[in-house]
Write a structure and sequence with these properties.
Blueprint lengths: L3 H9 L3 H20 L5 H20 L9 H19 L18 H20 L4 H11 L4 H8 L4 H20 L2 H8 L10
Helix pairs in contact: 2-3, 2-4, 3-4, 3-5, 6-8, 7-8
Length: 197
C-alpha cells in the first residue's frame, strides 16, 4: 500500500482500489469487534462504511491529523460508533478490544460521527415523503426563493407554496421524531431537529 498521505489523497479521489485495500486491511478487526459485541456482519459493514464517510469528510475539510496508523484511526472511529450505538440501545458489551491499539478521537471526529447518524436519519425519512414534498423541500433547502419555487413547481401562489412547505416540513420532522433512532440520538444529546428549519 502507498504512504498514508497518498492513501488519503486517493480516498478523496474515490480510488476504488485504495478503498478495497483499506477494506481488506481494516475490516476483519472491525467485524470481529462488532460481532463479538452483540452485532451482526451487516452492522459491521454499516459501521465501516460510516467510518469511511467520517474519514472522507475529515480529509475534505482538512481537519484530519493522524498521529497513528490509518488502520488504528479507522478502528477507533468504528469502535466509538459501535460503543455509542450499544449505549443508546442499552445493549451489553463484551470484551471490547483485547490487545488492540486504539487512539482517542478528538471532538471534531466524534462530531462528524454524530453528523453521520443525523444525516442517515434525515435521509431515511426524506426518501419517504412524497415526490412533491421532495421537490419542494429540495428547492427550499437549496435556498431558492418562494417566488422561484412557486414558478418551478407550477403552484398558484406563493402563499400556497409557503403552506405546502410548512406541511411537508412538518411531516418530515414528525416522521423523524417518531423514529426510534431519533430517541436514541436524543438521549445521547447528539441530535437537534431544528437543523432542518
Amino acid at each position: 500500500m502507498h504512504k498514508e498521505k497518498d492513501i488519503l489523497n486517493l480516498i478523496v479521489k474515490g480510488d476504488t482500489n485504495t478503498i478495497n485495500q483499506l477494506y481488506q486491511k481494516c475490516f476483519p478487526a472491525i467485524r470481529q469487534l462488532i460481532v463479538n459485541n452483540s452485532g451482526l456482519l451487516e452492522d459491521a459493514e454499516d459501521v465501516f462504511q460510516e467510518a469511511l464517510v467520517v474519514l472522507y469528510r475529515k480529509i475534505k475539510s482538512n481537519t484530519l491529523v493522524l498521529n497513528c496508523a490509518l488502520s488504528t484511526y479507522i478502528y477507533s472511529i468504528c469502535r466509538n460508533m459501535w460503543l455509542d450505538r450499544l449505549r443508546r440501545q442499552s445493549r451489553t458489551v463484551g470484551v471490547i478490544d483485547g490487545n488492540r491499539e486504539i487512539v482517542d478521537l478528538n471532538d471534531d471526529t466524534v462530531e462528524k460521527m454524530y453528523q453521520n447518524d443525523r444525516y442517515r436519519l434525515y435521509q431515511k425519512h426524506f426518501k419517504r415523503v412524497g415526490e412533491g414534498c421532495k421537490k419542494l423541500l429540495t428547492l427550499f433547502f437549496e435556498g431558492k426563493s418562494m417566488k422561484l419555487i412557486t414558478k418551478t413547481l407550477g403552484f398558484g401562489s406563493e402563499q400556497y407554496t409557503r403552506k405546502r412547505k410548512f406541511l411537508c416540513k412538518e411531516k418530515l420532522v414528525n416522521n423523524i421524531k417518531g423514529d426510534p433512532l431519533y430517541n436514541e440520538l436524543k438521549q445521547g444529546n447528539t441530535l437537534e431537529i431544528t437543523a432542518i428549519n
